[in-house]
Amino acid sequence: MQVAKMASVLLMVLLLLGCGGGADDTEKAPVSLEGEVARSSYAVGYNYGNNIRRIAGEMDIDALLAGVRDAYEKGEARMKPEELQQRLQQFQKDVMQRDQAQRQEESSRNIAEGDAFRQANAKKPGVKVTPSGLQYEVIKPGNGPVPKPSDRVRVHYHGTLVDGTVFDSSVQRGEPITFRLDRLIPGWVEGIQLMKVGAKYRFVIPPELAYGQRGSPPKIGADATLVFEVELLGIEK
User: Is residue 41 one of the residues assigned to a domain?
Assistant: First the structure.
């Protein structure tokens, strides 16, 4: 999850949790979804429930709902204000620490898998490696002009992780796409300038030339090596 999105949802969770406390009086009861207000209310609750589950991990749902109900009905909180504040701060700290640990684990795994993949790929016939570490293979040569960074390029592409998982593909969508070259990841900026219009290349892009440690959630994790097949269809000056 992107940091901004996580912060937004986390804030909502904290606001909900800050509204109340224990679950001793909370009972599970059938809920009617008849009527517009009821159905809209359920949709909002279900959406935030999904976000809370992804971010917060283990939660006492009965206690959470009791807090929401207490605040919504303008009842008193079942904890003292100082304990509410302490619980919120600890909750936020725990979530951030867990997220950091998960990202570090993901990063270490992706670095190891990416390094092994690129080492093996570099030994294949026809694969060339630039000084930056970009690997490329000519699938089909072109005979047109070579783009400059300020050009808009029209391409067909198919992007996968090293395990073959597809994260983005204009080929699968069946429609080429146009980008301004200098606004793409460094591996694309360098690689496409090696191509002539009409060419099709395969690129293996190390994380430092892709999305690095931040990744591009949810499909591209931290420090992931990316594999692209790119066909350069045209240049728009």
Answer: yes
